[in-house]
Every structure is written in C-alpha cells, then in structure tokens.
Amino acid sequence: MATIKDIARMANVSITTVSRVINKKTDGVSDETRERILKVMKDLNYQPNRIARGLVTKRTNTLGLILPDIANPFFPEIARGVEDTANIYGYNVILCNTDDRPDKEELYINVLREKCVDGVIFTSGINPVSEHIKQLMDCKMPFVLLDRYMDIDCLPGVYSDGYDGMYQVTRYLLEMGHRNIAFIAGPVHSTTAKHRYDGFKAAVGECGFSVDDALVEEGNYKISGGKEAMTRLIGKGKSFTAVVCANDLMAVGAMEVLRENGYRIPEDISITGFDDIQLSGLIEPKLTTVAQPCYEMGAMATRMLIKLIEGQAMDEREIKLKPKLVIRNSVKRVD
C-alpha cells in the first residue's frame, strides 16, 4: 500500500507538500506541482486514510445513515437522496440496516462512533428510542432524525406529514361513497403508524361517522403483515367496501388475500396504500396511494446534518413535508 512518503519521493517534493495537496490546502503549491502529485497518487492508486486525516482535521467527511428496513422500497429512495446530497458536499455515507432490531440499532451507533463519522442520519424502527438518542447525545455526535418522529423537544428532524396524507386518502374514499372502511395499521409501537391512524380517524369523524374498531387490524409494514391482517379481517365476517392500508407493501399483501378469497378489486372492495413505491404503479389494478417526497426528505436531512457539523445556522430544526394523493384504479365509487 502506497504511503505519503512514496508519493513525495516519486513526485520529488516534500511530505508536507503532498499533505497539503491531499488536504486541499494548496496555497503556495504551483498548479504544475499539484498536478504532478495527483498523477503520482493516481498511478499508485493511493487512497487517503480518512480516519487518520480526521485525527488532524477532526473530520472524516463521512456520514452514517441508520435505516430500519432497506428491503422496504420506501427507504432506498431516501438513501439515494442522502447519498447524492452528501457527495455534492464532499461527504461519503456508511449505510446501516437494523432490521427493526434494537440490538442492531445500538450496535451500529457504536460502530459509527468507532468509524469516527462526522454525524448520523437516524431513522429508528423502535419506539421508544430514548436510550439510543441518549447514546448519540452523550457522545456529542451531530444527528438528524428522519421519517420516524420522536416526541423529544429540540431534536433536529425531517418528516413527511403522515397525518395529512392519511387524512387525504380517507377523505377521498368517503367522497367516493364508502362508509364501512377497514384499516390496516402499522406497528403499534411506531409513532409514524399512530400519526397515520390519527389522520384516518380524523377524516372519518369529520364526515360524521365513527371508526369500527372491529375493522382495524395491526400490520408490520411488510407484504406478510398485509396478508395476515386481511385474513383476520375477512375471518371476522364483517362487511366493508374499502380498506385503507398504512403502506403500499401491506396493500399488496391485502390485495393478494382478497383475490384468493374471490373478491374483485375494486368492483367488490376498494383499496388504498401509502408511500407510492414504484410497485404501486405496476400492479393491477394500479394502486391509489399517497406519495411521500422520499428523495427530498433524504436530501433535506443531509443538508441539515452538514449544517450542524459545520456549525452553520439553521432556519428550522424540524421540517415537515406535505405528501400528495395519487389517484389510480383501485377505488370504485359506491352508491
């Protein structure tokens, strides 16, 4: 592995000059010398040791991104927004997938500390997460919460307004004549799931109706959760003309079970999702859903974190983005 000494020898310059070029402090270094050093670095396939540089600069230009489930198509789009924006500002990203497990969350926080990352973008799958937030606060590491809202004052975060998104799609169903509406919720421990359920209840109540608790089932934001919840709903023998799902993956699972039981969508039962993942526009019928600005959320969280790292003033410590109703073919008007 090439060293700074090797580069200095081959470029016929001092180690100090090489170090200045590597750290982009090239005042007093001629363009010709700089280009010669960069060529030698390329020829030797030299890669600066970010951690070693960080001991001097106090920065590694690396961010950590902790996500709960990278298999969920919602999160790769967020990750793309984080990575693209980080790269623009000269940062790299280390991605950590926790599988919604608190032990892996704790493990990755410690791993990122050991890697000397400059800051962390944190989407927790666990609630409450006070101990993990405390870990980050205790080590004085800059961090930004993303997507999963935590009811802790003054923590910087970027969120999509799940309450408003679910309110929009539920109002649409009510305007299409539906009254007996089932709901497949997210995990009971999730603040995101709670906000979406609250939006559903608000829309139903505002129209003068009440939520039938027997038509509410908990899911897990996965296809399997949608299948299991829909199986339980059908098993109760209660009538409903529409089902609202707290995300698109559960809607896909619910649709499969409905078809297996002889129901046509939307002729017999209408269905909606949430997230607007790519799959929702490819299945038949195409799914009416709520689009979240995933890429923008990741980009904004990254810009917020870099401001924290670099000590810049922030206009807002909490940003809430508005989702958008996407009407497709999975809802039918009823009389």
TrEMBL record:
Record has Transcription as a keyword = yes
Residue ranges of every copy of the HTH lacI-type domain listed in the record: 2-57
Q: Which UniProt keywords apply?
A: DNA-binding, Transcription, Transcription regulation
Q: Superkingdom of this entry's organism?
A: Bacteria
CDD domains from the entry?
HTH_LacI, PBP1_LacI_sugar_binding-like
Give any Pfam family that matches.
Peripla_BP_1
Q: Name one GO molecular function term.
A: DNA-binding transcription factor activity
- Name it: LacI family transcriptional regulator
Organism listed in the record: Calorimonas adulescens
